[in-house]
Amino acid sequence: MGNSASALPYTIGDEVHPATRKGSYGFSIHSGERKSDKKPVTVFKGEKSVMAKTALIRGGNTLDPTLTQIFPGLHHFKKSKTMIHPHILKCYATLDTDYPDGNDPSSSTTQSISEANPASLSTLQQTATTGDLIIVTEPVMVLEDYLDMLERDSEMTDTRRADAVAWGIYTLIQAVNFLHSTAKLAHGNLIPESIFVTPGGDWKLSAFHLLTPIGIRDGATGPSQHFRHFERDITPKDYRGPERIEGRFDAISTSPVHAMDAFAFGVLLPEIYRHYGCGTSSQLPQKLEKACMRLRTPSITSRPRILPLSKCPIFSSPHVTAQKFLDEIATQPIEAKISFWKSLPDLFAKRVLSTRIAKYKILPLLQQTITNLTTMDNGLTQEISKRECLALMPTLFNTAKSHLSKEEFQNQLSPVIELLFKVNDRGVRGAMLGKIGLFSEYLDASTLNRVVFEPMCSGFTDTSAPLRELTLKSAIALVSHLTQPNLEKLTRYLVRMQNDQEDSIRTNTVIFIGKVAPNLSSIARSKLILPAFMKAMTDSFVPCRLAGLKAICACRSLFDEKKLAAEVIPAISPSLADGSSEVRDAAMRAVDDLLVVLREYGEKMRLEEQRNPTIPTTTSSTSLTSSMNAAVASSSKPSAPPPAPSSSSYFSGFSSWTSSKVKSSSNVPVVATVKSTSSLSSQGSGSGAMKLKPLEKATPAFASLSLRDAGVGGESTGWSDDDFDDIEPKSNGNKSSLIPAFATDGDDDFMSQFDRKTAIRPRAGGASKLQTPAKVIAGARRREDLSNKFKKAEKIEKVGVKKLDLEDDMIGDGWDEF
After folding, report:
1. Phi, psi angles (nearest 5°) of residue 47
2. Within 10 A of 771 (CB to CB), how many other CB atoms are there?
3. Closest alpha carbon to 171 in 328, 32, 50, 27
4. Distance between CA atoms of residues 353 and 344, nearest Å
5. Does residue 339 contact residue 362 with C-beta atoms inside 8 Å?
6. Exposure letters 384-417 (e unless 16+ CB within 10 A, then b)
7. Residue 363 reports pLDDT greater than 90
8. Cβ contact 321:328 at 8 Å
9. pLDDT at 736 over 60
10. Any residues with CB less than 8 A from the CB of 196 and at least 6 apart, and which?
């Protein structure tokens, strides 16, 4: 085939039947599909080089090189494109690869050279036979395969099989009558191999290898030269009347156009019914016996026309009647069509129409009808057109749900759904909204977001309150399939609908928000749900307030415990005094439920604190424990000079330590052990200072110690401006002592640390630094006197100090925060 075959908008698939099949005349049958939408097709392919060398019949006259498959194949190839009827095999495309552009020289004349003189060797020599003949048709199967399928189908009863075959014969009668009455042509080859069947059960006539006019082309001489030359080798003898066997073509030319095919039809019907798939126990129906005998009469002039056979009672069953209506539906009045569409579910329920008919015939017809209604110039402006569309829609979607897989539903119905959502009619929109649940089940997320959600959003702002409410109720089925941008878009509509003038819409909006909340992002939840519920709880409509309370309870898992305590319960509290007893009761239940959650959380925290004792890291508690650690460290061993203080918290910690009461005696060591936060008393509301519970021990050497007692600072604040004037560093050794570091002259001298680094002096502007002066005589004297006072105490037996039991990772050396 080369590249010319690839130019077709179809792909050729696997071979279904070979070119050697009986009655194929050189054409193999392949599956195929359209490239654009993957719709299935059937492809007939003939290799011209093989057909030119193959005799028409096995064991035929091989001495005559013209009696091969090539000329009948070319004749069929040409006629297939011109024969158009509902019951003639529909041809989508043809290609002769020897003439890919379609410029076959023989086709430019009225009669091809093969038709004019098929017995001439020169004609054969003038015919290109190197390429292929390709015919693309609607998807079909050969008649024998169809009857085999009916026989194997467990869904089919004998009655239903007989109805299916009766309908096929009825369509065959219509096709042959078209050739005779309208086209004035005789088929000439009515055999089982000339019949093909669609997946929907419609029989299609094809195999136009001998198609010929009668008494037209050749005048009084009868059929064409092509027919006369090939009919003997193409048509089996049983299907040829006496006039054909005897070669009396003059009798054929002067007889009615139907006479030759009538004989073959009378032979064809009993042959079809011999198959067990016909449901008649391999017997011709009694009502057809006399008719077939009349069709096979030897006298060519006495044979009846084929069309009156369609009045036989076997063609009046409910199945055939329904099929007839479908066949003629385009010409039926709209009222009749509406009535029929509404009756289809009942026909399916009673199994009058099979699953294959529903899937392969009814559904495509419904889709095409809706497409025509929604895309015509006037759209659905006429009331009668709207009624037909509304009658079609339930049948379309219910049939699709029952007979299509999810993939088939997606591929076949997505275009129709998109068209219907664009229809500017509230009745159609309401019917579509009622099917949102079905769409969410059978369509993928991308299609739902693009085809369904986007056009559906217009319903949120519609002026019709029932449509707004229906849009809101329907949207819940889409929530789990929406993308985050569309979810955000949906929340904006929900916020707007909380201000709707309709009480029921506001109430349903709150219910919707409660259901959609788990699917929202954390940011969207924080912005939407609690404000929405709070707004609902203040609504004037009692059911709306109840819905807000119930929604909070349903969504309590979306709030953490702190938010429940700080925001949710306070938001519910006004409802405890609501004017409606229902609201008050619901609010009380909601608070009770939330308090249970908070109690459990509090108990969990208590157990966690017992397992992992910690001290809350507030400013006052940190300063207190830091000062305590520093005192213990300085009394037990020398410590490195601490960094210069840089914040006021330093002084508050120092003051807190020096002002605490320590009870001791000369014989009992001071013990200050902090085991857990439970040993601490409550924090002060102002300074946040913490107190240790004093141990019942002997009185210490000194009752208390303050900045004023130590001679440090002014009269009120503990630090005066004079204290920053002149400070002289002083060092008197490195001794361990019970005296706090700030009161000694050793290296641990607390005050001496100020000379080691530049101190920052806070001012109103906060922009300048304070330089520490070299000497502060008055301050040094006070410290020296205080030091001498306590040196005498060193001669007394020193009491051991037990280091405070504080966790290193929580308190450290007391100066971590500085």
Report:
1. -85, 115
2. 10
3. 328
4. 9
5. no
6. ebbbbbbbbbbbbbebbeebbeeeebbebbbebb
7. yes
8. no
9. no
10. 42, 89, 140, 141, 142, 143, 203, 204, 206
DSSP assignment of 408-421 equals HHHHHHHHHHHHHH
- Residue 533: pLDDT band by 50, 70, 90 thresholds? very high
pLDDT at residue 707, rounded to an integer: 35
In this predicted structure, what is the pLDDT of residue 56?
85
Which of 407-411, 555-559, 780-784, 792-796 is the least confident region? 792-796
Among positive and negative, which fits the CA dihedral 584, 588, 589, 594? Answer: positive
Nearest to 478 by CA among 462, 496, 459: 459
The residues near 442 (Cβ < 8 Å, ≥ 6 apart) are 400, 401, 404, 406, 409, 410, 413
Q: What is the pTM of this model?
A: 0.68
Give the three-class secondary structure for 757.
coil
Q: Please give the angle made by the CA atoms of 646, 716 and 705, to the nearest 5 degrees.
A: 80
Q: What angle do CA 68, 69, 70 make, to 5 degrees?
A: 95
Question: Is the distance from CB of 88 to CB of 178 less than 8 angstroms?
Answer: yes
Confidence of residue 380 (pLDDT cuts 50, 70, 90): low
**pLDDT tens sequence across 610-633:** 888 765 554 444 444 444 454 444
SS3 137: strand
Q: Where are the beta strands (DSSP E) in 640-707?
A: none
Pairing of strands 212-213, 195-197: unpaired
Residue owning tokens 């009696």: 67
Domains of the chain listed by start with CATH number: 3-139 (3.30.200.20), 143-217+235-314 (1.10.510.10), 328-473 (1.25.10.10), 483-612 (1.25.10.10), 619-794 (no CATH)
Lowest-confidence segment of 159-163, 284-288, 373-377, 459-463 by average pLDDT: 373-377
Which two three-digit tokens encode residue 544? 């709306």
The token pair at 760 is 């920052």
Nearest to 140 by CA among 199, 206, 76: 199
Q: What DSSP element (H or E) covers 185? A: strand 185-186
Assess whether pLDDT exceeds 70 at residue 257.
Answer: yes
Distance CA 747, CA 731 (A): 6
Taking the C-alpha atoms of residue 234 and residue 210, their distance in angstroms, rounded to an integer, is 8
